[in-house]
Amino acid sequence: MVTAPEAKDNVSGFDRMPPQPVSTIVLTVSRMHLKLAHGWRAEHGGLVSAIGATLPGASWQRCRTHYSTNLMAVTPKASWPWVKTLLHSVFDQPDADSVHAQYDRIINALAEKLPKVADHLDAARSDLLAFTAFPKQIWEQIWSNNPQESLNKEIRRRTDVVGIFPDRTALIRLVGAVLAEQHDEWIEGRRSRSRRARPFPR
Question: How far, CA to CA in Å, does 177 sit from each of 31, 172, 188?
Fold first, then answer.
């Protein structure tokens, strides 16, 4: 299912989706949060329940980029640069155990001076760190929905250039080509990072 993030029926849209086999979808990524900037509310529990009912076995990753905006809203302006740096440090860790350990250290560091911020982080822990259950090689593709939003924009741009397609097959061929290009870019990006991380021979 593909929906615009601004659509008010994004959550209820799951109800119109037929239940999927357990092995088909293992993770969903979205910007959805308790209070949206579009003037309407979407309950966190409703979203997670809808995902659980429609996509058995799938977990939910809360977009780290959009969560940062939510966290900024409860953080004193003067403290935000510090808090933002701490939050970003979570995603710089080398493995899942280090990610969770750093998250704990951040909450402990903020608990006394900024208790509301610490509570906000603690409540978001499982949703924000869902990516750690997956291979590190794909973390950058799944801890935010920005890559998917960029891909959707590119698909819209390419299809707008064509305008009218002669048939469904032509549309699928073009979108498939865009997806293949993106896949190749992601694979090459992982190879480049792997080469940079490889120690120099002595």
Answer: 27, 8, 17
pLDDT tens, residue by residue, 146-178 = 767 777 788 888 888 888 888 889 888 888 888
Antiparallel, parallel or unpaired: β 27-30 and 59-62 = parallel
**Spatial distance between the Cα atoms of 150 and 161, rounded to a whole number of angstroms:** 17
DSSP reduced 3-state for 27: strand
What is the C-alpha to C-alpha distance for residues 149 and 31, in angstroms, rounded to an integer? 11
Of 14 and 143, the structure prediction assigns the larger pLDDT to: 143
Question: Angle at which helices 96-111 and 115-128 pack, to 10 degrees?
Answer: 160
- 99 within 8 A of 132, measured Cβ to Cβ: yes
Alpha-carbon span 106 to 102, nearest angstrom: 6
- The contacts of residue 117 (CB under 8 Å, 6+ apart) are 71, 74, 75, 79, 83, 110
Stated pTM of the model? 0.64
CA 173 to CA 178: how far, in whole Å? 9
Q: Confidence band (pLDDT; 50, 70, 90) for 13?
A: low
